[in-house]
Amino acid sequence: MNQTILITGSSRGIGKAIALALAEDGFDIILHCRNRIDDAKKVSEEIKAMGRNVRILQFDVSERENTKQILTQDIEKYGAYYGVVLNAGLTRDNAFPAFSDEDWDKVIHTNLDGFYNVLHPIIMPMIRRRDNGRIVCISSVSGIIGNRGQVNYSASKAGLIGAAKALAVELAKRKITVNCVAPGLIETEIIDENVPVAEILKAIPMGRMGNADEIAHTVRFLMHKQSGYITRQVISVNGGLC
Ligand code: NDP
Question: Is-catalytic flag, 153?
Fold first, then answer.
């Protein structure tokens, strides 16, 4: 049976590291990006060189109809997926009183609505496979402890945890697991000049940022066939931050 995994936001950063790790483990890969198709193509070349099947989908996860159409067509053509990693996400940090409506909406529509927009078209075909399945949501330490300047982002990432846990209950008897990985401070492009890195590092017992491969390692563990009894969990990968 086809063992294909979709990783949203895998043109770069954590998603790219996850895609490469899962390809190394023998899975066929669906890369995904919003704008940076050239970056996704480079990742695709690396995966092809490993001898895996790979294709790229491009859509904005906050656009419901387009997301549904592209995923439905892909499944009709290639079949249902074994796994999905909901990794695409963004930040619009600011003090709460200074938020624009757009700062709030953009983050919620991408990070939280993205859960529904991506999973809803995928889930019935996954169930109909009647085989093991894996869903991993990339949440954040911010969704667990709440971070200054991230009221929107913390809400979206906490929302993901609630959604994942509820879906885990619904899918438990179908052999489909649903878990979250909650990264701490990971060195990628999302850590821009607005992130007070020096201040956060003081709160991290390990005193360093994490790297994308350390998140990928946890996701590949959850994707493994033998991880089938782990569901409804949040695994933090954060150097001891909380
Ligand atoms: P990056 O900014 O490096 O990469 C973000 C990825 O998501 C890109 O592939 C981007 O596509 C895609 N993306 C962003 N918005 C959309 C959208 N609306 N529709 C479709 N794709 C989109 O981020 P990271 O790799 O650091 O983050 C990955 C995930 O990990 C995110 O969910 C983030 O919230 C989470 N996280 C990250 C932490 C960190 O410290 N880095 C900490 C905790 C959680 P494109 O390249 O086309 O723009």
Answer: yes
Distance CA 22, CA 9 (A): 14
List, run by run, the mean pLDDT of 10-residue segments along the chain (242 residues).
91 98 98 98 98 98 98 98 98 97 98 98 98 98 96 98 98 98 97 90 97 98 97 98 86
Distance (Å) from CA 127 to ligand 1 centroid? 27
* pLDDT more than 70, % of the chain: 99
Residue 38 CB less than 6 A away from ligand 1: no
Match 């995904």 to its residue by tokens. Answer: 32
Residues 6+ apart with CB under 8 A from 152: 92, 99, 103, 104, 107, 108
3-state secondary structure (DSSP) of residue 151: helix
How far is ligand 1, taken at its centre, from the CA of residue 173, in Å?
A: 31
Q: Which residue has the tokens 């592209």?
A: 70
Q: What is the DSSP letter of 2?
A: -
Distance CA(206)–CA(172), nearest Å, equals 35
Q: How many CB atoms lie within 10 A of CB 145?
A: 16
Catalytic residue (one of 78, 81, 82, 153): 153
pTM of the model: 0.98
pLDDT digits (tens, 9 = 90+) for 162-176: 999 999 999 999 999
Contacts of 181 (CB under 8 A, 6+ apart): 136, 137, 138, 139, 215, 218, 219, 222, 234, 235, 236, 237
Cα 21 to averaged position of ligand 1 atoms, centre (Å): 17
Q: Pick left, alpha or beta for residue 201 (phi over 0 → left; psi -120 to 50 → alpha; otherwise beta).
A: alpha
